[in-house]
Amino acid sequence: MTRRGIALLVLGVVLLAACGSSSRKANGETITLLTHDAFAITDSVLKSFERDTGVTVIISKGGDAGQVLNQAILTKASPTGDVLFGVDNTLLGRALDAGIFDPYRPGASGKLDPSLDLDPQQHRVTPVDFGPVCVDFDKRAFGGEGQPPVPATIEDLTKPAYKDQLVVENPATSSPGLAFLLATVRRYGEDGFLDYWRRLKANGVLVSDGWTQAYNEQFSAGGAGGKRSLVVSYATSPPADVLYATPSKTETDVGVVTDGCFQQVEFAGVLKGTKHQASARKLVDFLVSDAFQADIALNMFVYPALEGTKLPDAFTKYAVKPSQTLTIPPAEIASKRDTWIKDWTAAVIG
Amino acid sequence: MSGAALAAVPALFLAYFFAWPVARILLEGLRANGGWDTAAVPEVLGDPSVRRVVWFTAWQAALSTVLTLLVALPGAFVFARLRFRGRGLLRAVVTIPFVLPTVVVASAFLALAGPRGLIGERIDPRGSLWAILAAHVFFNYAVIVRTVGGLWSHLDPALEDAARSLGASRWRSFRELSWPLLRPAVVAASSITFLFTFTSFGVVVLLGGTRYQTLEVAILRATRDRLDLRTASVLALVQLLAVLSLLVVLGRTADRRSVRQRLLSASDAARRPSTRGERVFLAATLVTMAVLLGSPLAVLIERSLRTAGGYGLDSYRALTVAPSRSAALVQPADAIRNSLGFAFAASVIAVLVGGLAAAALARRGHSQGLLGIGLMLPLGTSAVTVGFGFLVALDRPVDLRASWWLVPLAHSLVAVPFVVRITLPVLRSIDPRLREAAGTLGASPSRVWREVDLPMLRRSMLVAAGFAFAISLGEFGATVLIARPDRPTVPIAIFRLLSQPGQSPFGEAMAMSVVLMVLTAAAILVIERLRTPGLGEF
Hints:
The complex is a heterodimer. Chain A is α/β, with parallel strands linked by helices.
């Protein structure tokens, strides 16, 4: 046999192997959950749902929450999944305007924190979890001798003591970035927030494209030798800092500024046009069931929406729950966010 | 087979897998309330931030192309003309950067000169122009070396020898003999480099920070992040028009300048460096390659071997461990199998479609025609636009969106222009009198093709297949939108690993990058072996 023959044969075998591995057992119904990259679930919890219902779930992660939603809107004539989880209150207006969800109210909805329900008339989406977006700080950089105190408010961040210390995410590309921008809009008003940002800019704020870059690379407690001691992140970042630590540790270096936090709520809904409506509804039921709600905290580092869910000690010991959070109604966000982002870009980057 | 029949397959392929999806997504943005949104173009282009994007896209591409030519032409000469130890291996190694995923290259540059880099913080996290340009040269070095060097190795060195023996200086013999003959390849390679850098995406996303945006990046952000289809469609049109006019101009220039010549069929043109000058030149070129191409790759390997306590294979071992959480969903090793399958299918499709198209174009003589331009368009179109177009449009007549073939089809779309660019100059250079003579002697058209064209084409077709394979292995922009999460390719798996927090996923990402690099090198080495001179039997 010639050399080319051998090469083609080898490649052909590889191709067949690849095709073979992609065939899936067709036992019971298979549905697809569209979600963001941060979605996580304990394998055994998902398996027990699949065992109980006979429904197989494909988890399709399509980037961040905004990207997943936009893709769902673009393909709404012929959806690529059956349930969408992860659309948050900053995106909800857009999702509802686009009409991608079929109304469905799970049996457990009465037990969910009522303040989280942002579609109480039509029930097109169900709240699953929530988490405050706050400014986090590196405890080692504040409060010690010769160090500035921990900032008490987000107004403090414009003071010279915190010059060149804050890293934020670009609200055009990052959902915590947008949440923090919205917090400043709520705090300083539509007429005042740009002025606040100009003062932050004069104080050396750094803009990263995404949370990963900001927290992991720029933040001094992010583990990669970053130089900035203040970052826009979550009130639940401290437990994540402890649980992901290698080597393991029992105390966290990450603290939370509890002023100026924006309440993020995540929702799930059945996608309009699904061919598996009954199974899709079972999956939404599951997302607000005790089993999944109890699994949320340590997998996604957010608070469960189901009231009375027992939180693991590892989570409650380190997580912070600000007494007050800022929020803006989804419809207002939907109609004004592009303007706000554009003005913000011109003031801070442009 | 007539030219029209040859052209039908690539034309249909382009119509269904390119024109239709792209048209669908553009129409979504440019139609409003059942009519045309006539205000869209002037309004979007009136925005100063949009104009800044257009201007930046153009000048950084021009600058990148000039820099790449300056750095890579000596390399093309060295590979075409000089014989030295390790030449075949190095030729393959030099091609690796071209097919590395942009994510990996950007990380390698950051590892070299980022905040935690070996040489200190030289890359501004808010965007670094020099890092973008360096990465562009790094990527496109191989385009110049392969395309220009490929033709150069076919040129008969006897021409230059004759000129030299008649008293011409080396420079003069190059300028007056080799350069005119090489010009079509230089124009082709520069145009590909320009197109690539003009539509640059991954590099600019990762190294441009928030300060630098190409059209491609702006299209992605408008579509995916803001769902501003109006802006995205106008930007995509601007990019299409720019690329189209560029291709028309270049097509004319290339046609006018291409010279029919006798090509050597074997690479006998290379010889050992004989003079001191040649040895110095060779050494200087090799050092440049080592610094420019070698150092980011070396850092990449170093990082893949770094462990908590020193160096080891921990990151590689982790690749074969099934994920315990739903984070990765598939074992990283499965991604390698997916990538190989996709790449094989994509290169078969690309060589078939591209080969037919090249044959059809060669029959037409020197006019590029609609097909020629249409074939190059996928190169200039935003991968994002194509990816979203696939998702919006390819649900009928059969829903291909969940099909295994979606990814290789998209990859072959990217690879076809290369197949055409690589095979067409060779086809064009075949003296038509050879075909005519064969015809006169009674050979059927298919026999003429088999016995005249094919033997001369074989080398470039194999090169093209290797390229298509490698392109598919590394493709990222469209794949990130269309690959199903349970069937990721290697670049997608790397991207996912990179976006996870912690040191161990980062190490795994680096290890996978090294694996991808090795696979790519293997693919290209196989091609290099196959095209070894003196194995005429296959």
